[in-house]
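Please, structure for the following, as tokens.
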Amino acid sequence: MEAGAIAIGQWPGAGHAVESWDKGGDSPVCAADIEVDGFLKQELGKLLPSAGWLSEETADDPSRLERDLIWVVDPIDGTRDFLRGRTGWAVSVALVSAGRPLLGLLVAPARGEVWAATAGTGARLNGVDIGASKRRDFPGSRVPADSLMREDADLVLVDKPNSIALRIAMVADDRADLLATLRWGFEWDVAAATLIAREAGARVSDAFGQALAYNKRDPRAFGLLVSAPAIHGAAVERLAGRAEKYSVEIPALK
């Protein structure tokens, strides 16, 4: 995918220099984010001129709420890894209809990975069908995280890419059993990857176990749970108290 080629053409891990800055709230952005965003907006706009647009790097246009179809894009998910020359970043593109993703694509060129899904047809990695974790016991579940709280000491840490989309994809490809977050996150971070996970057979919800919806007026949801279906209920139960506590204060929408 050309968007991935644009990104890796500026990736410090390949010896390139890229301009970067903080856009506020300790959130880094770089020239590659902006260039990939502009490229995708132009090319996807040509493909479906009637579709709306929601992207991390484009000012939100409320007219998207009136559209039947909308592109939901994160031009570089995992910018911190991108800037550090690490491989844990991806270009994320989803096409959403009636609040649900129809198409999902993750391109991780530094890893040589292309993840794709179409609603109702399964998920693929580099063209090969994939299946999610089928773990049945919550203790011992593999989690892509930097560390674990004391009450989660019965879980097992595995590699954590900075891109949350790639962490979700790890569950889709049975490299992890559970991905859990307890913070407010944006639709563009997860729209493509959650479709890939669901089509691979994983269970997907917010931190309270409720279904996710897309193209909302406020494009945020609190927390994310992606897991093997049999351990999803145990994950919701384990996180219930923390989710209730941390979801109370909603950060201002920028």
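Residues 134 and 183 are 26 Å apart (CA to CA). The radius of gyration is 17 Å.
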